Amino acid sequence: xxxxxxxxxxxxxxxxxxxxxxxxxxxxxxxxxxxxxxxxxxxxxxxxxxxxxxxxxxxxxxxxxxxxxxxxxxxxxxxxxxxxxxxxxxxxx
Amino acid sequence: xxxxxxxxxxxxxxxxxxxxxxxxxxxxxxxxxxxxxxxxxxxxxxxxxxxxxxxxxxxxxxxxxxxxxxxxxxxxxxxxxxxxxxxxxxxxxxxxxxxx
Lengths: 93, 100
Prior knowledge:
The complex is a heterodimer of chains A (about 90) and B (about 100). Chain A is of the alpha+beta class. In chain A, about 40% of the residues lie in helices and about 30% in strands. Chain A has three helices and five strands, in the order H-H-E-E-E-E-E-H. A three-stranded antiparallel β-sheet of chain A has the order 1-2-5. Chain A has a two-stranded antiparallel ribbon with strand order 3-4. In chain A, a hairpin with a 6-residue loop joins strand 3 (about 60) and strand 4 (about 70). In chain A, helix 1 crosses helix 2 (about 20-40). Chain B is an alpha+beta fold and about 100 residues long. Helix content of chain B is about 45%, strand content about 30%. Chain B contains three helices and six strands. In chain B, helix 1 (about 10-20) crosses helix 2. Chain B is elongated, with a radius of gyration of 19 Å. Classes of the chains: A alpha+beta (about 90), B alpha+beta (about 100). Chain A: This protein is one of the two subunits of integration host factor, a specific DNA-binding protein that functions in genetic recombination as well as in transcriptional and translational control. Chain A: One of its GO terms (molecular function) is DNA binding.
């Protein structure tokens, strides 16, 4: 499923909403998550999962082609951990 | 970094501010977004949200695990796991935001 299909499903279930409003709703949900993580916050969505930020320390890396050493700066990466309910739903047979 | 945690409530508040539906309906729509993503994954579909990221479901085969405390062998059943791969845009915004 891609974003436009997600938007279409929600639009179909909510015929009283303008399509462009459904687009804004979906965009707002995902933007808000990114915005929170960019502020160093966590986003916890019970049953679904939690988004958080992990810090990767600076390190000396190596260019795999030339073998040359390169300094890799510290960086902050988004991380998602699936919620318990979703994990159970994925494995309910 | 404020260390605060956002929940569904904050997301529905954002939708409420952005679109001007009732608080109730905003909360319901946030729930609908999450539920559609979840049920697509449960049905085995990957979910790709451009400029956000991709949720991928993978099947893992059975293997023999070990209780790290007792050393005892325990069978691990085949199961499905999900991974999230953030988009380039998300990675950039999260990195830039946390560095500043």
